[in-house]
Write a structure and sequence with these properties.
With 377 residues, the chain is of the alpha/beta class. It has helices at residues 9-19, 63-70, 83-93, 103-109, 117-125, 145-156, 158-172, 175-185, 210-230, 234-237, 240-249, 254-258, 265-283, 308-328, 332-335, 338-347, 352-357, 363-376, and strands at 2-6, 24-31, 41-48, 51-55, 76-79, 100-102.
């Protein structure tokens, strides 16, 4: 495998030349979100015609070279688990890839259980990949040679993997399912977080009382400010579970705060007093001044939780989904996610087209499940 690091105009011209002579490319991206506050694009790996390019977006703008190909209809773009990368390309480069083939989606529709790239390459092609730099800081520069080689392998084998999975999809009669999923994948974008209550992103928040939820909301704002100032990923400042426990126990002193399991004593010592001041403000609020957990739009009881009636419907829908997934040999979430099942339970559709209109439902899923789901409602 030939690897070329692209950090100048000459390298970009080499990429352009390769793109003009192929009808299929493999693409992968690396971001800094595991270590840094911003999950900005740090590296683009592109493989075609036996050549792998590592494009450094800190040094060159790859968008003018990539856009005509990625957004065109002539060249197939093979990716793996591309949901985040598609969003990243759209946000950071303004590129909206088309004609995608996602090997992770393909594998899941075939009922393959281990669908991570390393596991999939090993089981399907007998290729062994190292996971050494899976959680590396891709924003560091210069990028060491071992990390470059590791990154190159993320795209180098994707075309061969797609060529292996496509006939299996055709034989199983599921290529149409995959194509529909690929077209939906091409449309994903990062959602603007402005106006979204941050406690919605914390699963355990639903278990808290109103005043505890308000403390958690303050703790999340505190963590976000520190993450920005330190350029550190939020979970590296404090994990969600740590903030939930902090909101629940409501420590009175910095010493008590630093004693919470998972809380950094150094961080608590330097910035903890600000968090405690936020908590004291929440404690002083009257009951009718508490915000609590936000109600889910369209929820049956306004509490953000399904009503007992809806929960009963969800249970019946899950039974049908689970049995059909077993028959098809695919994962339950692959066939239909729990979130979509809840939406169906809330809406209680009476026609197949109503099921298909539910957000998140694909045509192939409606064809397989709609009649049974409606009957259970």
């Amino acid at each position: 495998m030939e690897i070329r690091y692209v950090d100048d105009s000459e390298g970009l011209e080499a990429v352009r030349s390769t793109l003009q002579t192929t009808d299929r490319i493999a693409l992968d991206c690396e971001a800094a979100g595991y270590h840094r506050y911003s999950d900005r694009l740090c590296l683009i790996q592109l493989s075609a015609n036996g050549q792998t390019y590592l494009m450094d977006p800190f040094e060159v703008d790859p968008a003018p070279v990539l856009r005509p190909v990625l957004e065109g209809s002539e060249v197939e773009v093979v990716m793996h688990g591309a949901d985040f990368d598609v969003r990243l390309l759209a946000r950071d480069l303004g590129i909206r890839p088309g004609k995608l083939f996602d090997t992770q989606i393909a594998a899941s529709l075939l009922g393959i259980e281990a669908i991570g790239l390393s596991a999939l390459l090993k089981s399907e092609l007998g290729i062994h990949l190292s996971k050494k730099y899976q959680k590396a800081d891709w924003a560091r520069r210069p990028l060491p040679s071992p990390m470059r080689e590791y990154a190159a392998h993320d795209s180098a084998h994707l075309i061969a993997l797609a060529a292996h999975l496509r006939p299996a999809l055709e034989q199983a009669g599921r290529l149409g399912w995959a194509v529909e999923e690929f077209r939906e994948l091409e449309q994903v974008r990062f959602e603007k977080s402005e106006g979204r209550d941050p406690v919605r992103s914390v699963k355990e928040a639903r278990t808290l009382g109103p005043r505890e939820v308000d403390r958690l909301r303050e703790a999340l704002g505190w963590r976000d400010r520190l993450g920005r100032e330190l350029d550190r990923a939020l979970f590296r400042v404090a994990a969600d579970a740590v903030l939930v426990e902090t909101a629940r126990t409501n420590p009175a002193t910095v010493s008590a705060l630093s004693g919470i399991r998972g809380m950094s004593p150094a961080l608590a010592a330097e910035w903890g007093s600000d968090l405690l001041a936020r908590f004291r403000e929440v404690d002083d609020r009257p009951e009718d001044g508490l915000v609590g957990y936000p109600a889910r739009e369209g929820s049956s009881n306004g509490s953000g939780r399904p009503s007992l009636e809806v929960e009963a419907r969800i249970a019946r829908l899950k039974t049908i989904r689970n049995e059909r997934a077993r028959q098809l040999g695919v994962g339950r979430g692959t066939l239909l996610s729990n979130a979509v099942l809840q939406e169906i339970a809330e809406l209680s559709p009476i026609r197949t087209e109503d099921v298909e209109a539910v957000k998140g439902v694909r045509r192939w899923q409606a064809e397989l499940l709609a009649a049974d789901l409606i009957a259970s409602l």
